[in-house]
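Re: Re: token formats

Sure, here are both.
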Amino acid sequence: MKNKFLFLMILGLAFFASCSDDDKDPFKNYSADFSGDKLALKLNGKEFSGMSVSFNSKNKKNATLTLNALIPGEPVLELTNLVVEELSGDDYTFIGENKNDDRTVSVEGSVKSGVLSLNTNFKVTSKVVGKWMLGGISELDNVSDEVSLSPLHFELSTSTVETVTLPVMLFGGEYDENNNPIYNTPFVLSIDDANGNGFVPFVQNIVKMLLPQYLYSIELKENGSLIAIYKGINEDSDEPLVLEEGMVRYNVVNGQIYLVIDITSLLGRSTESSFNIEEMLSNGIPLKLQIEEGLLRAYVDKDMMVPFMQFMPIVKGLVADMEPVNIIVGEIKAEYVVKFLDDISYLITTADKVELGLNLVPYVEVPAVNSQSFSKMFGNTVMKFAR
């Protein structure tokens, strides 16, 4: 009997000793949130402030790191099955990766004295990576022998609107007492024109003439940065400008490309307004993607556009005090622009289908657009559609 009692005591001591060892598991109390001065975060070598991450380590084999609002289009990204190594005291290190067909996110971090130093690497593996240019400005970018691209992808179908009045009053053939032309003819276009002179082809033609003068190329880099080579609208110099790396970041998620814009850096000023645009854009502006051989199409549809119509009053407020602008064949006034914005808002919200975006093709060197002939081309195009 004494031997049996001694044996049970030994088993009991072994059991409690085992429990005591489990209590000393160095990972069980490591779960914590890190932000502010408790977090030093870098993404592809660049420091990011104002971020937050969460570390969860309930046991040695189940450690997870959550990145909050760091990767475009993935506001809550979890990296599971981290490899964790204990250091002295409550300090530790970890390493892990989250990978799919479009991108790879890897992390390497260490917690020392309650401060997390986190190096995050982001690599895009999608087919969008590369240097692109606007479609429709080179003989080399035809998708087929029959179809030549426009830089603008624009599809519109509506059963509620038949015409669109553009914000331009055309010259009606009359002059005032000082022999100045009188602009009194509204510029009205039908939505569906059997002759190809409707609203959609008009917009496509204007964009085809105008946009290539200002946007030369777009590069979607492997590190998630979007680099644009462009000409400033009010710049007299022909020297192209370069959008600074990191100003616009992107990611591809489930067939969409998400763009995160550093609004403050881009505008060089505070963006305080009646709505928080930075919060609105923090997760990324989503664009649908169509990727084919020789074509990258990024666009928004009606469902994406309608929520932004709530900001139309703000846009109208920005143009309400604009000075009249004379163009070759007409005059643009604030009242015309405001009315046009109202019409566009109604058109979008009631349309059966709207798609609007850019057609991009692989970049090649092409001759520069002759800006001196633009005025003539614009005038000819306006008059063609006004007839």
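Second one below.
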Amino acid sequence: MFTDIIVHRVGNKVRQENLHLSHDTLQLEDEMKELLSDFFLKAFKSEEQFQFYSDSYLVNNPVYHAVSEIFDDKKNFTEESKAIAKHLYEVAENPRIQSGEMFVCYFEGEETDEGKIDKIGIFKTENKLPFLKIKGEDESFVLQQDWGIGLSKLDKGCIIYNHSRETGYAVSVIDQNKNGDEYYWFEDFLKVQPRSDDYFHTGETLSVYKDFITKQLPQEFEVSKADQADFLNKSITFFKEKEQFDLQEFSKEVLQDENVIESFVNYKTDYEQDMQVSIAEEFPINATAVKKNSRYFKSVIKLDKNFHIYVHGDRQKIETGQDEKGKYYRLYFEEEK
């Protein structure tokens, strides 16, 4: 539960809407604090984390600078929250961006074996929902319609954890209301990039490998769709069964052929250069990232508009050929279910 909270009203600058800044924090009862804390935090379900960055010096990132000032001294909370609101107002350069309330909260961390880690939350509500107010008057009731913030879905938010300051902190981010501008919250306002952790390396390795098997491999080698399906199945099995990823071990167990291994390493290197990222060759495998990416590893062979073959296991039980009737797949099985 947060210890401090302040709210500012941020309009759309392009539409000449105003910026309304609060000068005092909200004084709330514990029940309301619990309600708002649950609303703000329940939306953060993914383990994916980001970090602040800057095109020059990290301190020149406005949000990074503001939260650093607050972490250094909570007396800066109100003034730095205003700076964050002003920055959010200035970066709204798209007329489709909705105005809304921006909440800044300070969460004091609980003592753990790793120490106490405080957090700062920045949340923006944009969509307003209709609701009815029922008032009793004498022996009858009066219904009135009003508009307010629904507590089922947070539009935008981020949580900054007070560690790894030198590399841009650890930041959880959501944007569930992009409104035609996918860069506004992540890039223009926060200016964050994926954090180089186990989740990142697991997800990126799986993504690069899938693209290699489905796009690059058929261009360099004579492989069938069944071969590609086999590569995908072996790779996702490797990630599900192992706790640690090692590129050499992965290459020997999954890719096996030296020429294919060399091609994959070159493809990975080119990807890193093009995307300006660095993917580790050894890292602990993140199970959540594997689960998220495994849905894209469906090994399906599509045959015209007539059949789909879902390949889950032994490549040796699939044969392909051609006769006077056309191309065919022959499948071997032990039991029909």
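The chain has a mean pLDDT of 89. The first strand starts at residue 4 and ends at 10.
- S.
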